[in-house]
């Protein structure tokens, strides 16, 4: 497959979607779409663990998808998991198996990031409007509400209700009664209650719906003649009255020729949409073909064309926390200079390593707004738990871990909680960040001299111009203290001059992870 192709896979709670596209004359041209109703959320047990049966069903689907991805480079593909994989206690087990089947990395995105990507996909798939737009996406396990203008999401919410989860909770055996319908409607209203007034106060001009549930509802309304295009609140009321005449999901499937899997979750999706329209006074909405997977494609193309939303996110964090950009820039430049010297020997030539180190260096002082003494801990907490547009859950864990360990203690297991590919690289990236921070502890704008770094497994030697360390005794003392801290993580640091020789690593010195 030509290298101009890009692809995205959405591992949704109800369906898995794949899209393959390429950029032609500035426009995204879709070449292939695949969709399977895996109903991953239906495999969650009472302990929020994915059953082996649901995992098997999902992996078989991904094996079919994987055949289509064989010739697409990793940097031109994104695979994301959503609400069910956020919830599942054994999601790491499933993700590892999925990555093995696909041969590509799987990201789990937070609810706010999912909402951002959905809005991006919808905004590129429908006509432009003046003013604000409300986007509604009903997934299997969550519902996203986004108010935005043009291509910019302004307010996002991810609510824990979806067509699969609500159907399981209220119509698990497939039976439909008036009392069960009222119970489901009450659950929807309770979920909407905390955000209802806030959304009504913000307002919008146009409402757009996305997702399989909303499309299926539109198809039913059109087939009945209750709507010519889109969805109206009045048509939903007529559909509710018809559903009350049905006894079970089999009758629904027969009446509207729905796939049995879609029929099982149809009522749950309907109750969510009808509840939203009632609570937010929505009289009509258009239906978009684009959603999360299209948003992934446009986000990916932005990264390829160096319009990465993650860089904008970093700039926003810097502004919000009033960080010292001059100091961050100095630390970043030194860390990158050290990385260039060791990237081959330390196997850090992966193209993701340099951007990760840059972002950690630019944000390493995030916690200073709260306190100086423990700012590395506070900064790590913020970066792990904040909504950072463009970042997956693992991206944030990595960034947080580097900031947490950029100073003070550095235990050997500091990065054991990260995915295996990052657990190997992170300790070495962290060493480079720590050295850059120490070298700029004075916060002076005077440039550092040329500093060399040589490594041999877990041994490092920093080389300075003759007499420079003698002229900077405080820096020497800081580096000697850093050497003691690094020893706990399996690194041996020594200081030298340009003509010194690096002692090879021996069995007496533990190798770096």
Automatic annotation (TrEMBL):
Keyword terms: Hydrolase
Keyword Protein biosynthesis attached: no
Coiled-coil regions listed: none
Annotated Pfam families: Ppx-GppA (PF02541), Ppx-GppA_III (PF21447)
Highest rank taxon of the organism: Bacteria
Domain Ppx/GppA phosphatase C-terminal: 309-482
Keyword presence, Hydrolase: yes
Residues annotated as domain Ppx/GppA phosphatase N-terminal: 19-302
Protein name: Exopolyphosphatase
Phylogenetic classification of the source organism: Bacteria, Pseudomonadati, Pseudomonadota, Betaproteobacteria, Candidatus Accumulibacter
